[in-house]
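Technical note accompanying the year-one report. For the benefit of new consortium partners, we illustrate the data format agreed upon in the data management plan: each record pairs a sequence with a structure-token string. No post-processing was applied to the example shown here.
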Amino acid sequence: MGETLPLVLTMIDATVRVATPLVLAALAGLFSERAGVVDVGLEGKMLGAAFFAAAVASVTGSPWLGLLAAIAAATTLAMVHGLACITFNGNQVVSGMALNILMAGLAPTLAFAWFREGGQTPLLGPGQRFAAIALPFADALAQVPVLGEIYGRISGHNVLVYMAALSVPVVAFVIYRTRFGLRVRAVGENPSAVDTAGIPVGALRYRALLCNGVLCGIAGAYLSTAHGAAFVRDMTAGKGYLALAALIFGKWKPVPTLFACLLFAFTDALQARLQGVSVPGIGQVPVQAIQAMPYVLTVLLLAGFVGRAMAPKAIGVPYVKER
């Protein structure tokens, strides 16, 4: 027990840290896809948000201003996606992939042009990034066996981790207990009925994409100003796609999506600790094979369960108002 508990708590701690951007991005995708707009562009929005968060925090010295810049950047990209898909009825998958490709090239280019540090932003100092927060009574409970150690692990995260944890019940409440959430779900299932009721389909989808941009902005800011200390090229490393897979595996519902994100994050945290470990009879497993574990798990789960997931009926279908 003395050695097992710290190991378990360390894995849980690492899982929570890795899951934070996945949860935020997956909930962002939930808003857009529940409204009927496919969002393959989660990766690009997170990447753009990560760059602008680090760039603004580096220049101003304030991670909060960096967070606002990240939200503004991700929201702008979400509106561009909406313009292409909602206003001009473009292909939603193509638009999302275009955002990913755009930001994969634009963010490092801007970083090189502005900072001249090889396509990344300067390292952020202690006051320029989100620091760990000690929860009340964490010091007083530190000496209490088991309980103190568990509470100590809950404490000590940065504010964006706690925001991600709170976002799950908040999003669930918005989606299932508010008029806006009801309309979002309705427009993703039957936009014609929503339009017949006198509710503008396009405006409602834009509002859903606005929520999408805010959550993607927080996810991107977490990567470069909380979990990390700078923006580097391709720092999202496929997390946008993992978040989209978690959303599908979670059947477009907040709580199941949360557990899917935690599963993927646990696999990612586990692979970081398995590198260099030798397997009896096999020897040391190649690092590349271990690093591929989260993505292999994603493919296997989607291959096995995606057929059972019922997507919103109007997802990916541009709505053209009948005249």
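Partners are asked to follow this layout when depositing records. Residues 4-237 form one domain.
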